[in-house]
Amino acid sequence: MVKRKNLILIGMPGSGKSTVGVILAKALTRPYLDSDILIQLKENRSLQDIVDADGYMVLREIEEQVLLDINCENHVIATGGSAAYSGKAMEHLKKNGVVIFLDASLETLNSRIHNYETRGLAKRADQSFADLFQERLELYTRYADIVIDSNHRSQEEVCDDIHAKLELFMARENVKA
Predict the structure, then answer these.
(1) For the domain 6-176, what is the CATH superfamily, name and number?
(2) Residues 51-85, buried b or exposed e (16+ Cβ, 10 A)?
(3) Per-residue pLDDT at 119
(4) Which of 59, 67, 86, 101 could form a Cys-Cys staple with 140, CB 3.0–4.6 A?
């Protein structure tokens, strides 16, 4: 029997993690967690304020600790875009969760998001969004149990795809047990 019960959404900012996460949680009647909101509540400041005051590496450290502190079952969890930088946090989440990578092209992300400079991204100051995209793509792919194409699709279509692929994934995992 599969023990991994949480659904963990990973991907770039603009891939749809937060929006799809809420819709998915409602459809599955599960509680919803957004790690970016948990970080802001813990720190009592915005992600951008953390980056501006302390740097992007501090934001990543805070994010790692927030993710390591998540201990729940049957939740939908939307992670921040930089969650995949922490192998320790990703392995912690995978112990009781199925990791779903919402894969969007650079073109799609650029068409959806226009405030990257004030969005609280955990990136080097000299790093372009395209460079960040390339760097993270490998990490998302490494940790993903399921990859969902979120390009040019409604949130409902993405949720339907998650449902379908999740059923197949769970059936495969049950066979292995």
Answers:
(1) P-loop containing nucleotide triphosphate hydrolases (3.40.50.300)
(2) beeeebeebbebbbebbeebeeeebbbbbbbbbbb
(3) 55
(4) 101
